Amino acid sequence: MISKEQIIKRFISYVTIDTESDPNSNTTPSTKKQWNLANKLAEELKTIGMQDVCIDENAYVMATLPANVEHKVPTIGFIAHFDTSPDFTGSNVKPQIHKNYLGSDILLNKEEQIVLSPDYFEDLRLYIGQTLITTDGTTLLGADDKAGICEIMSAMEYLIQNPDIKHGKIRVGFTPDEEIGRGAHKFDVEKFGADWAYTMDGSQIGELEYENFNAAAAIVKIKGKIVHPGYAKGKMVNSMYIATEFINSLPKMETPEHTEDNQGFFHLCSVKGAVDETTLEYIIRDHDKKHFEARKEVMLNLTNELNSQYGSEIIITQIKDQYYNMREKIEPVMHIVDIAEEAMIQVGVKPIIKAIRGGTDGSQLSYMGLPCPNIFAGGHNFHGRYEYVPVESMIKATEVICKIAELTAIKT
Ligand SMILES: [Zn+2]
């Protein structure tokens, strides 16, 4: 079906274009260079024969593959993002291809002695005998999420070239700025016009996710009183000591480094302090909505307690919700997960269904009216120099997309 050479060539044509996003920019896309890939993708969609290819003023790319059946079938969508993480440089990516991986160390960079080792990254052993694409150790790879784009593009091309595979209307969406949390912000759900969609933005082959964190950010501002230290008795209030009290009053084991699976946490991201004022930045995460709300309460109650203990409003805590667990929006339409699961089984992929310890664009889209589970794109070790992707996983993801299209036309 889809050849390795085709996939590799297409993938490399994407990752060699720098599309790093920038959280400090207010424009969309956050960096001008994202246009380079966005424009290329729009052209390519036209070349492979997609209809209604459109790129809007914010660089969102959309296109249609019309139905090739008479009966009414729901419109489904496939979405991936073309920016890469600002956590690590994405300029001058030089992908390295390792055919027939033997399970040993991969020397990414001889000069700097950078090694990708299965002793540290055990998942590598899952791919013995396969073709791996890695970095040269100096950049990230960008399989997150250019593998997803490559798979969607390849699947659409395959369906166009094989009209004997019957499917309903399919919409494709490529978005900027996912890595800075804004991929869904300017996504026009109405214009996209799908009944549901899938982001192709998961990691390991088989991943299928419809549950993510509920997320909030908290800023705790503590006011002190600065007085000359020699004459401070009874007068100085050192905001850093009160901050320490605050920090130590939260449950010590409920932090990222002590939790896994479905356990939530408080994460202290930064402390900026002087005697006069200290600011703490936290994020709060929990899959369970009730526990999530309770965590926010804990912080607010602690604020009130310390304020009454010190006799004035010295602490101000502001909490802002960031995104919610998409499970609530997916459960009423569980057949969209079932179709994806069955598609995987039919193409010989073992589904791995688990809760994401983070968010996806799909969670925001689900709350914007487009239910949107997440499917593996195949890569590992995102956002850094050890990122890699097995070509065989990309081919399987491409097959999963085609199969979902086919099953949707049969089952609904
Ligand atoms: Zn991603």
From TrEMBL:
Question: Where the protein is mainly located, per its record?
Answer: cytoplasm
Tell me what reaction this enzyme catalyses: Release of the N-terminal residue from a tripeptide
Molecular function terms in GO for this entry?
Answer: metallopeptidase activity; tripeptide aminopeptidase activity; zinc ion binding
Query: Catalytic site residues?
Result: D83, E178
Q: Which residues bind Zn(2+) 1?
A: H81, D144, D201
Q: Name one GO biological process term.
A: proteolysis
Query: What function is annotated for this protein?
Result: Cleaves the N-terminal amino acid of tripeptides.
Q: What is this protein called?
A: Peptidase T
Organism in which the protein naturally occurs: Seonamhaeicola aphaedonensis
